[in-house]
Design goal:
Layout: E1 4-8, H1 19-32, E2 36-39, H2 47-57, E3 60-65, H3 68-73, H4 75-85, E4 89-92, H5 102-121, E5 126-130, E6 138-139, E7 142-143, H6 144-151, E8 156-159, H7 162-167, H8 172-178, E9 185-188, E10 190-194, E11 197-201, H9 210-220, E12 224-227, H10 236-249
Parallel strand pairs: 1-2, 1-12, 2-3, 3-4, 4-5, 5-8, 9-12
Antiparallel strand pairs: 6-7, 10-11
Helix pairs in contact: 1-2, 5-6, 8-9
Length: 253
């Protein structure tokens, strides 16, 4: 199955406040050239209305970011929404604060994440974890992210974020390679130095080694390359267009 570039809607969160905003933004994203999205950063909207908007634009939701609380306390409704949208992948955007307390916290969270992944598996959905850079603090010679994935069940998937791996001092291509057959979606964003500080950039406009990263993703079986840029230094829609254009020039669709 060929890979596809998808739009992480969190990038456009300021344009997703109301159902009308969501409709107009989805239309613009489709016009840019994206055919699929990651649902994240949306304001209040009824699941059925969101489906209508997606279907109307010929867009597919391929993964979400959901709250940890909903996974624990609103599981059935969450599953029903994903089934309605025909969205096969569920992810959380970060580790709950209560688990960020050293090695023991990562190991404990690995157990909880494994339970969630097994529950979602019974409903034919996957569960992924999205990293930042704090997971690259070391405990007993290993990073927190290593402790987490070493202890988690293989059903716990990765949503490696290339920028945050680099920000934490890791190697994005290496981490994408480590997650072979365990990463349906990767988050792609670039890094530049602006005014002496690391900051985010459109894919292909910064300093990350994209040939190595993309090759590692291909070998690992990545299905979707989700363009995300938390901070844009130009119009976010223009940023999304630049990243898509550059990724297509690198051989992605």
């Amino acid at each position: 199955m060929p890979s596809q570039v998808t739009a992480q809607m969190y990038t456009l969160r300021e344009f997703l406040k109301t159902p009308a905003d969501i409709a107009s933004t989805m239309k613009r994203v489709r016009e840019i050239g994206y055919e699929s999205v990651q649902l994240s950063g949306l304001g209040m909207i009824m699941p059925l209305e969101l489906k209508r908007i997606l279907d109307g634009e010929g867009m597919r939701a391929v993964i979400t970011h959901v709250s940890f609380d909903r996974l624990l306390n609103d599981f059935d409704a969450l599953v029903d929404e994903h089934k309605l949208w025909n969205c096969p992948n569920v992810a959380i955007g970060g580790m709950p604060a209560e688990y960020r307390a050293g090695k023991d916290g990562y190991v404990s969270f690995a157990g909880v994440a494994s339970e969630i992944a097994h529950k979602l598996k019974t409903r034919e959905l996957t569960f992924s974890y999205h990293n930042h850079s704090f997971e690259f603090a070391k405990y007993d010679g290993k990073t927190g992210l290593e402790w987490f994935y070493n202890k988690a069940d293989l059903l716990v998937q990765a949503e490696i974020d290339t920028y945050w791996v680099q920000h934490g001092g890791g190697d994005p291509a290496d981490w994408c390679a480590r997650m072979k057959n365990r990463m349906p979606v990767v988050h792609v964003k670039d890094m530049v130095i602006l005014d002496g500080q690391q900051t985010m950039a459109e894919v292909g406009e910064g300093n990350l080694n994209w040939p190595r990263i993309i090759e590692a993703c291909r070998r690992s079986g990545v299905r979707y390359y989700a363009v995300e840029q938390d901070i844009c230094h130009r119009d976010p829609f223009e940023s999304m267009a630049i990243s898509l254009r550059n990724l297509k020039a690198m051989g992605l669709e």
